Amino acid sequence: MLVVGPLVGGLLVQRSTWRWCFYINLPFCAGGLILVHFFVRFQTKRSSLREKLLRVDWIGGFLFISGLTSFLMGTSWAGVQFPWSSFRTIVPIAAGAGGVLLSLVWERYGARRPPTRGPTTLPNEMLAQLETWRVASYPMPRQQGQAQTTLLAAAVVQYPQIQPDP
After folding, report:
1. Using only C-alpha atoms, what is the Rg of the chain?
2. I want to staple 78 with a disulfide (CB 3.0 to 4.6 A). Which of 68, 89, 95, 150 is the partner?
3. β strands within the chain, DSSP E
4. Given its phi and psi angles, is residue 148 left (phi above 0), alpha (psi -120 to 50 degrees) or beta?
5. 103-152 pLDDT, tens digit each
6. CA distances from residue 58 to 51, 63, 64, 72, 98 in whole angstroms, order as listed
7. For residues 42, 119, 124 and 53, what is the CA-based torsion angle, rounded to 10 degrees?
8. Rounded CA separation 115/117 (Å)
């Protein structure tokens, strides 16, 4: 299978403005919004607003959202506003990682209604998504910074490394 996303993205960023990285998704979103109306059918049981609010896992949601927010704040501050070794970077990252892990423990042992996918597959899916993000997004800016070159050239250099195995 051919991977052209990095090449198209590099070309788009190099030859136009960053706004087009977002504009290019609008036709796909509009098509998806229209198709969902025709193909997705949900059968939900009727319940009151109170019953719906009681079904929400407020503790798990709070733990996961606050943990992930703290982790992302620490990683976005690191190397930009504060050095990586600063406590202002390390504390949010550690607290965020702890909050996300605590949310997984809560979903496994404390939640009244665990996630639909099950407690054993949830961490595996999260790790797979994190690995996909790391592989797809990290190498090109790193390559660009090391070679002092454009994003398009970095995508071309990186392209053979991100092709799936036959």
Report:
1. 21
2. 89
3. none
4. left
5. 888 888 887 776 655 555 556 666 666 666 555 555 545 544 555 456 55
6. 14, 9, 10, 21, 18
7. 50
8. 5
User: Would you say 155 and 7 are in contact if contact means Cβ atoms under 8 Å apart?
Assistant: yes
Q: Which is nearest to 103 in space by CA: 84, 116, 85, 122?
A: 122
Question: Shortest CA distance to 6 belongs to which of 147, 135, 166?
Answer: 135
Which residues have C-beta within 8 Å of that of residue 157, sequence separation ≥ 6? 143, 147
Contacts of 144 (CB under 8 A, 6+ apart): 150, 151, 153, 154
Residue 79 contacts residue 90 (beta carbons within 8 Å)? no
Query: Which one-letter DSSP state was computed for residue 138?
Result: S
Q: What is the dihedral of CA 35, 37, 42, 44, to 10 degrees?
A: 160
What's this model's pTM, rounded to 2 decimal places?
Answer: 0.52
How distant is the alpha carbon of residue 84 from its chain centre?
22
- Residue 7 is given by DSSP the state H
Please provide residue 78's backbone torsions phi and psi, each rounded to the nearest 5 degrees: -65, 125
Would you say 132 and 142 are in contact if contact means Cβ atoms under 8 Å apart? no
Phi, psi of 82 (to 5 degrees): -135, 155
Would you say 48 and 54 are in contact if contact means Cβ atoms under 8 Å apart?
Answer: no
